[in-house]
Amino acid sequence: MNRRRQLVRSLLDAYRLPWLLALCVTLALWLTAPLSVARLDLLLYDLLSVELLSEPPAGGATDTRLPVVVAIDDASLHALGPWPWPRSRHAELIDRLSRAGVAGIGYSVLFAEPSDDAAGDAALVDAVRRAASVVLPVAPLALEGGGVGALEPWSELAAAAARLAHVDVEIDADGLSRRLFLEAGAGSAQWPALSWALIDVSRKSRPLAGLGGRRADDGPAAGLWVRDHEVLVLPAESWPPAQKSAADLLAGRVAPHLLRGRSVLVGATYTGAGGTLNTPLSALAAPMPAVEFHARAYAALRNDRYATQLSPVWALPAPFAVLALLWWRRPHARVRDLFGVLLAVGLPLLLSAALLSGLRVWLAPATVTLGLSLGALLWGTVRTLDLAQRLRRANARAHATLHAISDAVLQFDRNLNIHYLNGKAEALCACRLEQVRGGGLDSLPAIELALRETLQSLLQRCRDQACEQAVSGHVQMPAGRHGPARALRPGASPLFGRGGRVEGVVLVLSDVSDTVAAADKLAHQATHDALTGLPNRVLLRDRLRQALAQRDAGMVAVLFVDLDRFKRINDSLGHQQGDKVLTTLASRLRTVCRVGDTVARWGGDEFMIILQGLADRDAVARVATKVMQAVGQVITLDDVDFRFSCSIGIAIAHEDSDDADVLFAMADTAMYRSKSQSGAAIHFYAHDMSAGTRDWIELEADLRNGLDEDRFEVHYQPQYELATGKLAAFEALLRFRRHDGLLLSPGDFIAVAEESGLIEAIGDWVLQEVTLQIADWSRQGLAPVPVAVNVSARQCLGRSLARRVEQALRQSHIAPSLLRLELTESTAMGDVDHVAALLADIRALGVHLSVDDFGTGYSSLSYLKRFPIDELKVDRSFVRDLVSDPDDAAIVRATVALAHGLGMRVVAEGVETVEQLNLLASQQCDLVQGYLFSKPLPAETVVAEGLLMPAEVPTRNLRLIRS
């Protein structure tokens, strides 16, 4: 039995069986009900052709692509006599049309035999021959012995006609005529249709050959009427042809320009003429005369408003491909399922409409559409059953999930009576669902009054406002006989019924006890020092801001306590003993201070104390003294007694500042004043303490911003050869422009840059700026000279300086000989081995080296000999008193002799008087620079004043001033 159920379940798969049934139904309809389905296909064609094939030509009623019907109507019979007319009258009609200049004449009147009027017959033959564009009809004729023959014009008339054409019209399964065969005939398809032949005669070509679908073999078949090239030529709504009465034409009442260049069909339309056809238009009007049908067929063929019908077999592959895709995919999402079904059912119709509109091909869709519709119905049925089964499974899973989750879930009806409890709710509330079903919150034993009121209010708001409700934070469930205390986070969601009405409320109680405990622990860790348990900077700042807000609570003081020489403990006894000292001192500081005061660890061996509610500064000083005494008590470490001292800085709130961070900084500044006096001192903050510190900090911040804002500048001071007076080099001198526009020299900011570590970034910028400026002078066609760049001691600490110099040279593409580096004598003698290796790397790049401020340090000649130095620069302090101080003159003279002896050049900087210049010249100094010649100039001023000459112009000599 189980195996049988499994088989049935597999057969009723929601995506396989319905579409297999749809395939079977489609094939059955196609094979067993062709007539009824064909009628439905024709109805669909009529509906689609109204939109896709009924648009008239742009030229309107006078368009030469539309034919004119010359009707032998009731008025013509009344004016010219009863039917049949003499054949001479037909000849006159043809002559009239020929003289009007028509393109072709299609005659739907059959002249099978000669008449008794030989003259009239001859006149008709002559008129047809003269017109040379008359198409005469041929009709199928049932033979007495069986079979079908052809009823043709008599031989003389047939020979005179331009073409013979058949007038056979197909009658569809619904009894309506909307199609014809472009070629037909007895035994073989030898004659074109009347409308097609008229197009052929009118256009002197055969543009429609090869259209349509074959209905018979290519070879002749005796006794059979053979049809070929079937087309649908009559949409459900097509434009009517222009119609002129034969009487009006013969009477000359039809203007020739209405006929000129157009094709004309002549036929009988009078009442009782016979040969009328029922068409899709018959529902709106009377049966259509045959000549009008042929005229409409002409218009459809001539204006590409016809369709070729394909065999219904061609409709099968596309939808079957869709069925196969749906079978293979078997989607699970309902929206995707719906799109798949709509696509499967509507595809045949959409495909037919697309082919009819784009290719004028009609593909009958009814068979496949009916089959797919039945498949869709079956699919919907099985899908509903499948969804019901899934819903049952989903409910089972939801029930299991609700009992497995760690949250307590309680469901209430609209009256807030209990309807459902999951397992966690039963355990939390200490009851079973059967015991409390239908009761309210008061029936839950573990929910006490305060918590019950909070939850009752939450449920009522959720029901009345029809939206989710929650309690900010968590609620506390106190400990009792039903269990320990718990922290709960409640949330309520409405249950909606039909029409959006709230039918109940779901209450979820999440036990967040562990989370709250962990959060409390994290909050304590975030605001307290891990070693001492004291508040950290975050909590300290918050406490001070609260104290500052209470202006009427007495004086508030901030004490910055720093242990003196604490580093000795960490270095000698280890950090474990150092931590013991800190925890001991933290405990002592808590003891000294009151309950309302705050003792915090600032960092390392620094503590911060906030005192509140004190009367005056003396009271603050007394507390600070107690703090020093507590710190000074003995601490035993490894059986050794230690005594510590501390330095204390004090800032008073509201007197010194109202800002917490500023007060901390002021206390820090006062503490450093205590440190500067050998420690173990107490100092209150004074405003003159922070002036220097504040200026230093502000300048450091300004320098950092200046790098980003490009406020550094390089000025260039020329150096001249004393022997020739030629420009020999420039020294690059750094300047910094502050926000207020003040331009600072290096002496104003280099110390700050060195201590803050900015000097490396600034030095890199100067290298890049100078090398790029040399490259720019070269691009301007000027003859550049070497430029000397000062290098700080910090830049020489590692070996990266050589790499940075190489990178600057590579980026600027200048010759290395155009760059010189200057380092101070103290820098060169700091770490001789390291500096020697660094300078060798730089010299290998082709960059020249100078020792600046020579004579101010304590150079060792043996070390100086090891360096690849090209120049020695005599410090300006020796040049300044060169004329008046014999010692300075001796130093300069010795420096020149030493440099020349080592193969180096000498540069004297700071030359400001002619006397200095003359004395330097007498001592054989090589190069000079100073205000006597030029101040340091911006790069653009160097070019503007012509210090650099074009490369092809000889260098201009400086006329040195000599006494």
From TrEMBL:
It comes from Methyloversatilis universalis (strain ATCC BAA-1314 / DSM 25237 / JCM 13912 / CCUG 52030 / FAM5). PANTHER family: DIGUANYLATE CYCLASE DGCE-RELATED (PTHR44757:SF4), DIGUANYLATE CYCLASE DGCP (PTHR44757). SMART domains: CHASE2 (SM01080), EAL (SM00052), GGDEF (SM00267), PAS (SM00091). Keywords: Membrane, Transmembrane, Transmembrane helix. Residues 554-687 form the GGDEF domain. SUPFAM superfamilies: EAL domain-like, Nucleotide cyclase, PYP-like sensor domain (PAS domain). Residues 696-950 form the EAL domain. The chain crosses the membrane at residues 306-326, 338-356. PROSITE patterns: EAL, GGDEF. InterPro entries: Biofilm_reg_signaling (IPR052155), CHASE2 (IPR007890), EAL_dom (IPR001633), EAL_sf (IPR035919), GGDEF_dom (IPR000160), Nucleotide_cyclase (IPR029787), PAS (IPR000014), PAS-like_dom_sf (IPR035965). This is Uncharacterized protein.
